[in-house]
């Protein structure tokens, strides 16, 4: 008999409760009891590298980030992003040479949530260049892109498919800003070096948000929390990916190239209102831990069941730590 995807990956099935099911159904999320939405947890084929790659995908290359997962997390992402980094960014953008408007490259744009959050917080005309490996997500991003800036100026978009490993200063020529959300932790050291070299070579600031920090706080606590978190973090580091080490590596890569780097925490703070997201995150978090350390499965099954029951009852709170990074590269072209 052919194994299901759940059996192959070691994910632990758990039926969504009424509140979670209603929220998931409203967001278009499949209600399969075994389903872990791609992006929430391990959903790759055996031997496949579990990362968003900004390169062309083949016709049989399954999406790694489903629109439903990105929709579930968009609100908590927006609430978590560090608004304290916006003032230094605005100052830099205001001092850019020329006044024709901003050109912003959004790497791994998904469905475009970064643009929907940031464009209305910046003044002046903006042209967003949206990069992602998945044409389906690019379509969502283009259709749902914001149309006006904070001061009512026009916002336009274009979409591109490409490879972050081929990003160069020439590609970013004329760029005002590079953005990304939840991207650094699925890159390698080489890819982060390439990103830093491209941004600093072009004199372009970078706002890189919501990188996993490797720390989770659950209330009420459970003795197994720390062991699951350690196994999940190890899963994040598979195949030379940096996972929770990505922010430190990115800080070093930008700083070594003369950029001024600012960091700010950007944790998800999940309660009863975010139960659908919390439940999907829990499935993925525990599933990745079990995939990394199969010996956890026997204890992880009742752990996940109890956690999901608490989530459905509105009794579980989660703080999932992330970090936002603003890298202000030395400007070129006479900017101050």
Strand content: 15-25%
Largest sheet: 8 strands, mixed
End-to-end separation in angstroms reads 66 Å
- Got a strand count? 8
Number of helices: 11
Shape estimate: globular
Structural class: alpha/beta
What this model shows, in words?
The chain is built from eleven helices and eight strands. It has helices at 5-9, 18-26, 67-80, 86-94, 113-118, 135-143, 189-201, 225-236, 246-256, 275-292, 297-312, and strands at 102-107, 126-131, 155-160, 177-181, 206-219, 260-265, 268-270, 317-328. It is globular and about 60 Å long. The model is unreliable at 1-34 and 43-63 (pLDDT under 50).
Q: Which labels suit this protein?
A:
8-stranded mixed beta sheet; 336 residues
How does the SSE layout of this entry go?
Layout: H1 5-9, H2 18-26, H3 67-80, H4 86-94, E1 102-107, H5 113-118, E2 126-131, H6 135-143, E3 155-160, E4 177-181, H7 189-201, E5 206-219, H8 225-236, H9 246-256, E6 260-265, E7 268-270, H10 275-292, H11 297-312, E8 317-328
Parallel strand pairs: 1-2, 1-4, 2-3, 4-5
Antiparallel strand pairs: 5-8, 6-8, 7-8
Helix pairs in contact: 2-10, 7-9, 8-10, 10-11
What is shown here, in short?
The protein is an alpha/beta fold. The chain contains eleven helices and eight strands. Strands 1, 2, 3, 4, 5, 6, 7 and 8 form an eight-stranded mixed sheet that branches.
